[in-house]
Amino acid sequence: MIPFLSLKDVTALHDNEIYAAISRVAAGGWYLQGKENEVFESDYSKYIGTSYAIGCANGLDALILIFRAYIEMGVMSPGDEVIVPANTFIATVLAITENGLKPVFVEPRSDTLEIDENLIEEKITPLTKAVCIVHLYGRNSYSEKIGNICLKYGLKLIEDNAQAHGCRCPDGRRTGSIGDAAGHSFYPGKNLGALGDGGAVTTNDPDLASTIRSLANYGSSRKYVFKYCGRNSRLDEIQAAVLDVKLKYLDEDNAHRQAIAAYYYDHINNPLVSLPERLPDEQNVYHLFPVFCARRDELHDYLEKEGVGSLIHYPIPPHKQECYKQFRGLSLPITDNLAKTELSLPIGPTISFDEATAVVDAVNCFK
């Protein structure tokens, strides 16, 4: 069986260094808010290209903290609107509604799968305060037009970079450094994954960074003094140490993903299966390799029988989830179609070209 992604194999790539890092932390006796976090935050901010990185408990918290900080800073208020792609994992939307803000959904382009830059401006109202782009599947979603729209209307540009560690936009900057702030997830299956949950915010804004750091520490910047009604959202020392090890190999691991993806693009040839527009490698780190098929469920079951693991992302879009009943009447046909037809093929730093060949053969034999 070719697994969709073997986390055990991913850890084994650098296991000696990872185990040494864990042992170092365990023996050191300092497990929260210590030197491992300081080192990782410094290394990660340099890698992304920002002045600040603030570790937190997970990717959802990273996004929640960004919006919460802007509310505390008086930049946003409950009831304000945030433009967000309709085609995204629900965490992006949860971070908005958690803060009493209103998500305004914009359809993706069917070829790029990312937010359609040409539909953003028509959604802007006097209540709009931000555009939140999502580098979904590991694909860059930023364009110069999006940046210019934010400048024109004085909107904050927030990035959900949970799936795109190491990706670049067309001008060469890394995603996560393009907007006013970015949320990152280090969930184990991500391109830069911890051995548990973890997240971070990156930004160049010192006031935003200090506000987020306080909010994530119960609302405190000084012991027993609480400026905000904060939360407990911290990256622990073990996860920080593990992530710092894996960060050294992120570009190398992404290059392997890109090589596997290139093989898929060059060899998948089945009229029943379509692939998204191919981006330059630097603009796609292939967290996922999505394909689309009108008989998606049949394809999934067929691949399973052929010994190929695959997963569906995301079968129910946010606007059709029970928790968001107020959005169910929205007409978002492109998003709905992607949800009905998407299937992700195996990709990752450990899949071999022999396995990739077997995946392609199975996809091409589907009838």
Which terms summarize this structure?
367 residues
Give the helix level as a range of percent.
25-40%
Annotation, overall tally of beta strands: 11
What is the average of the pLDDT values? 98
Q: Hey, roughly how much beta strand do the residues contain?
A: 5-15%
Task: Figure out the total of helices.
Answer: 12
Structural class: alpha/beta
CA(first)-CA(last) distance: 21 Å
So what's the overall shape?
Answer: globular
- Calculate Rg over CA atoms: 20 Å
**SSE pattern, N- to C-terminal:** HHHEHEHEEHEEEHEEHHEHHEH
Ranges where pLDDT stays below 50 over 5 or more residues in a row are none
Descriptive report:
- The structure is a single chain.
- The chain has 367 residues and is of the alpha/beta class.
- Helix content is 38%, strand content 14%.
- Strands 1-7-6-5-4-2-3 form a seven-stranded mixed β-sheet. A two-stranded antiparallel ribbon has the order 8-9.
- Strand 4 (128-134), helix 6 and strand 5 (156-160) form a beta-alpha-beta unit.
- 46% of the residues are buried.
- The model has no long low-confidence stretch (mean pLDDT 98).
Q: Would you spell out the secondary-structure blueprint of this structure?
A:
Blueprint: H1 7-12, H2 15-28, H3 35-48, E1 52-56, H4 59-72, E2 81-85, H5 90-98, E3 102-106, E4 128-134, H6 144-153, E5 156-160, E6 181-185, E7 199-203, H7 206-216, E8 220-222, E9 225-226, H8 237-247, H9 250-267, E10 289-292, H10 296-305, H11 333-341, E11 342-345, H12 353-365
Parallel strand pairs: 2-3, 2-4, 4-5, 5-6
Antiparallel strand pairs: 1-7, 6-7, 8-9, 10-11
Helix pairs in contact: 2-8, 3-8, 4-5, 4-7, 9-12
